[in-house]
Amino acid sequence: MRKTIWLILLAMLLDVVATPVFAQTVTPQPMPTTTPAGAADLQMQNLNPLNVTAEDAVAFIRFAHVSADAPAVDIYIREMGDAPLIVNLDYGMVTDYILLPEGSYSVITSAPGTGIDGDVVATINWDVARNTSWLISVVGLVSNVSMSVEPISLLRNDLADDVSRVRLVNFISGAEPLTIASDAGDDFGQGLGWMGVFDTEVVPGTYNLSVTAPDGTALAENAAVDLAGGQLSTLLILGSADGSREVEVIPFASTADIARVQIINNSGEAMDIFLRPGDEQVATSLEADATSEWISVPSGSVTFVAYAPGTGPTGQELAAWIGELNPARDVTITFGANGATEQTDMQFTTPGDDAG
Fold it and tell me: How many domains does the chain have?
């Protein structure tokens, strides 16, 4: 919140180690007022403009423009050259997730077309770690000649299918603390100040939200948001305190941190495959020389164990693969003869595939 023209708010998710080269500039699209499908978060043309590989450790980062009186900006990362990463990011826009290598970065926002050292609006130095998700937003008011840099993390792990996780952020600079609730009385935040964050988990469904001032004045009513199970829904409260921009609720969805695994059985005999932790059976009587369907698995440390068909976790283990699964990856594991196992392929999850 110190002097400069705008405010830039960060929320990042990383998992890459190599220094990338810019392959393309990402052109953001306006966020719709309805929640987009979570699978859209993994569109490859926006996810991987830096040509990182699935073997790299990467983080997932979204950029947003939520400053009610600021013009569009271009966004640069100095460590990656003079080409803009984002062009013409305007008010109300949110990008898809973008991969960055883990490390320290200088993020620079400039007036469109003026270059990395041109009409600089705001900068931030930030360290990003592998397998984390963040939102970086241009925030605040030009009229206040103020600046703030805030990291907002997006937690996408351990998401249950029967629960919708919600993170709501108030980006209305200068407004009195707000109360957000559904028409059924569900609490989405009380006394929430500027850049205040409220977290909750709700039953999946459609919720009609209202935003009210401390004196009970309704600033927004019947803002419908669809909150699906097994995903994170981020709700941005946008608008202006002086009424020059209407108050609105802008939602976007993020899929869970999962990987997909396909198992090839080259052992010469049929096997059942179980997943640990949990001893969940994920393949039944997988025949010799057969390949399983894609299996969605929460990212993290896992073990796939093969047993003789029908013997289950109390039977004799035929083979086991132990490893770490990173988010948004398609991993192929081959079970060979004499208990041998190996990872034989890994790619980023293909856009449009069912990652859930």
Answer: 2
Q: Return d(Cα 220, Cα 172) in angstroms, integer.
A: 13
Clarify whether residues 241 and 285 are in a common domain. Answer: no
Rounded to whole angstroms, how far apart are CA atoms 330 and 236?
A: 31
Q: Which of 221, 255, 289 is the last residue of a domain?
A: 255
- What type of residue is 238? L
How far is residue 4 CA from its own chain's centroid?
Answer: 29
Per-residue pLDDT of the chain (356 residues; tens, 9 = 90+): 333 333 333 333 333 222 333 333 444 433 332 222 222 233 333 467 678 899 999 999 999 999 998 889 999 999 888 999 999 999 999 988 889 889 888 999 889 999 999 888 888 888 899 999 999 998 888 777 555 556 799 999 989 999 999 999 999 998 999 999 999 999 999 999 999 999 999 999 999 999 999 999 999 999 999 999 999 999 999 999 989 999 999 999 999 999 999 999 999 999 999 999 999 999 999 999 999 999 999 999 999 999 999 998 998 899 999 999 999 999 999 999 999 999 999 998 865 444 33
Domain that holds residue 128: 2-255
Query: Same domain, yes or no, for 37 and 111?
Result: yes
Spatial contact of 91 and 164, defined as CB atoms under 8 Å apart = no
SS3 label, residue 278: coil
- With a CB cutoff of 8 Å and minimum separation 6, the contacts of 215 are none
Bridge partners (DSSP) of residue 181 are 187, 210
| Cβ contacts of 285-291, under 8 Å, gap ≥ 24 | 285/309, 289/265, 290/264, 290/265, 291/262, 291/263, 291/264, 291/265
Report the distance separating Cα 286 and Cα 307, nearest Å: 10
If one counts every other C-beta atom within 10 angstroms of the C-beta of residue 204, the result is 16
Token pair 């400053």 is found at 67
Q: Residues 135, 7: one domain?
A: yes
Give the separation between CA 277 and CA 27, rounded to whole angstroms: 41
Q: Are residues 154 and 168 in the same domain?
A: yes
